Amino acid sequence: MDELSRILIQALGQLIAPATAAYALAAIGLNLHFGYTGLLNIGQAGFMLMGAYGFAIATIEGAPFWLAFLVSAGAGALLALLLGIPTLKLRGDYLAIVTISAAEIIRFAGRSTLWADYTGGASGLAGSTYKGPFQALSPLPDGRTTIGPLEYLNNGSDSWWTRIFAWSVVLVAVLLVWLITRSPWGRVLKGIREDEDAVRALGKNVFAYKMQALVLGGVAGSLAGLLFVLPISVAPDNMGRTLTFFVWTVMLLGGAATLFGPVLGAMLFFFVYMLLRTGMRAGLADVMPAQNVEHLAGLMVGVALMCIVIFRPQGILGNKKELAFDVR
Amino acid sequence: MSAENTTEKPAENTTEPVELDDETLAATVVDSETARQVTETLAGVEPKVGVAKPDPILRATGVQRRFGGMTAVDVDHLEVQRGAITALIGPNGAGKTTFFNLLTGFDKPNQGTWEFEGKQIARTSAAKLARSGMVRTFQLTKALSRLTVLQNMLLAAPDNPGENLFGALFRPLWSGVEKRNTEKALEILERFNLAQKKDDFAGSLSGGQRKLLEMARALMTDPAMIMLDEPMAGVNPALVQSLLGHIQALRDDGMTVLFVEHDMHAVRHISDWVVVMAEGRIVAEGPPTSVMQDQAVVDAYLGAHHDTDLGDDSLLDPAVLARLEAEEEKR
Ligand SMILES: Nc1ncnc2c1ncn2[C@@H]1O[C@H](COP(=O)(O)OP(=O)(O)OP(=O)(O)O)[C@@H](O)[C@H]1O
Ligand SMILES: [Mg+2]
């Protein structure tokens, strides 16, 4: 019984964990790309890594928190422009290829010894080197707070302060996405997703809209990278293809082109993922070593993603009717 | 999806020939003042290829488009009269759609220049051309499936401040415009028998309804010139009649219409001028009745040397067509 409640509480904690907020924000960005505009970005981890480096390096170089925050956002915008200018005039597949390779290039560049003075090479940047200004901003008194079954430090890395900040950013992002997607601007994005030539024939500058969507979603991705490294450290190998793949799962699980899909998707995904891992670790302790449990859980995520796409392509919040007809 | 391509056309004509006969169509022709004026103006134009028009809205010169070794379009000179309905006809593969694509910026020519309202537009982007008043529809219909019919319409309206990223954030900036656009959209949808469908996803419409939606949507942009690629393909005969009426009403409102169509009866009854393409070239142009008797045109459609008028109802009879084809093969 004790074991069970420990597992449950751990899973519950995932609902509000900073990493969950980071995934939710990354999925919000991806949703702007794919769900609303139809842009295939399969390198969201690259945007996140850019944002993480931008934030950490700016802070280490002495920037105050909000400046580093802006640098992080700017890093995502810059990457979006760099990738978008050559590819957004081409067919959609090209963006997919370019984003996935860019994400890998960024990761390898980060790992390389070339700029190790800034990036820390393969071992990355320790959290203690860049967390100071953020944690100093906390208005909370020192100590611990317990809410229901969840208990965390008020300040520090894995703290209530980190959670409050991370989810506030997510909240603002949801609000902004709500405002822009219900507008005529959002309607143009959806039109482009359906058939960009038709939208072009109606006099809209399709390239500019796609670029705006790519930049906004990229900025969401890079700020998600910032949230991702706030409680931990910057480690390039933590932010590779698996990360992108999880963000896609989160978005599709919640429902592409829905407002709350990414948030719900992230919460549900990590709740279940944690439940699975801790549950299996406890239940299968005699059968297999803990490392194998991790692999098994990863495998199950893959199967789950396939099941979503096949059996519920609209995700949890999506509208079944919208997918009822062949798009092309 | 490709089923609504031209391949469907002959079948449609042969199954329901009665409803499209000359008398029913003649009854729909609005004998408006504008129509008479246009006919009068064009009556003075000599019916020969590349002839200058009194008031051209569009002029194309030396337009060529090659795909590999094949020349799909090779137009020496073409002028389209402002305020008139011009039909562009020709057999399958003649290059009509490719020519449309070139004119509207959806394809790049190997060479050639053309101007719209006196401005050179040969290197202008498709979107900019549409904003300057030249709007088109597609032969393979492009409905925006996962938007509703009304959203399809609203998307087409020009100059909406809410389509700017920063304007989008402040609803009061665009709610008024949206309201006016909605009224306008509903009015146009009413005309195209789509008002009941306004909240349905466009993807749930039938092929013919999508054609209608695409045309209605194009009208939302307030174009000076509308270019329709086979607007009647897949639309039922009763609706074709009212569609023809709409097209004439557009002309009477001062719009220029250029349309591609395989239905000769429709062409004959509403167009003020007919341009015939075959194998990429313009082989004839002139008023509808004379062009359809033109030997070059009959040759292009039916093979050489038949003394048949293309508008002849007997061509709707499969037996007659089969006989003509058999004769052609014997040559
Ligand atoms: N993208 C392309 N690549 C290669 N060839 C093409 C391409 N587009 C068109 N063609 C060729 O150009 C010729 C003209 O095609 P087009 O679509 O303009 O004909 P059309 O007059 O519109 O015919 P239809 O009445 O059947 O619609 C055809 O022979 C076609 O095969
Ligand atoms: Mg065609």
Produce a short descriptive summary:
The complex is a heterodimer of chains A (328) and B (331). Chain A is mainly α and 328 residues long. Helix content of chain A is 68%, strand content 2%.
Approximately how much helix is present in the residues of chain B? 40-55%
Overall 3D shape of chain A: globular
Give the proportion of residues in helices of chain A: 55-70%
Separate helix tally of chain A: 14
Text of the CATH class of chain A = Mainly Alpha
- Cα gyration radius of chain B (Å): 20 Å
In percent, how much strand structure appears in the residues of chain B?
Answer: 15-25%
Report, as a whole number of angstroms, the end-to-end distance of chain B. 37 Å
Which secondary-structure class do the elements of chain A indicate?
mainly alpha
Which blocks of ≥5 consecutive residues of chain B have pLDDT under 50?
A: 1-19
Low-confidence stretches of chain A: none
Main sheet of chain A: which strands, in order across?
1-2
DSSP summary: helix tally of chain B: 14
- Overall outline of chain B: globular
Tell me the quaternary state. heterodimer
Measured on Cα atoms, how large is the radius of gyration of chain A?
A: 20 Å
Q: Name the CATH architecture of chain A.
A: Orthogonal Bundle
Count of β-strands of chain A: 2
Structural account:
The complex is a heterodimer of chains A (328) and B (331). With 328 residues, chain A is mainly α. Helices cover 68% and strands 2% of the residues of chain A. Chain A has 14 helices and 2 strands. Chain A has a two-stranded antiparallel sheet. In chain A, a hairpin with a 2-residue loop joins strand 1 (144-147) and strand 2. In chain A, helix 9 (184-194) crosses helix 11. Chain A is globular. Chain B is of the alpha/beta class and 331 residues long. Chain B folds into 2 domains: 19-141 and 223-291, P-loop containing nucleotide triphosphate hydrolases (Rossmann fold, 3-Layer(aba) Sandwich); 144-204, no CATH class. Chain B has 14 helices and 10 strands. Chain B has helices spanning 8-15, 22-28, 33-43, 96-103, 126-131, 149-156, 165-168, 171-191, 207-219, 237-252, 264-270, 288-293, 295-302, 318-330, and strands at 56-67, 70-81, 85-89, 111-116, 119-120, 134-136, 225-229, 256-260, 273-278, 281-286. Chain B has a 6-stranded mixed beta sheet with strand order 6-7-8-3-9-10, with helices on both faces. A 4-stranded antiparallel beta sheet of chain B has the order 2-1-4-5, covered by helices on one side. In chain B, helix 6 (149-156) runs parallel beside helix 9. The chains are: A mainly alpha (328), B alpha/beta (331). Bound molecules: adenosine-5'-triphosphate (ATP) and magnesium ion. Residues 96-97, 139 of chain B line the site of magnesium ion (MG).
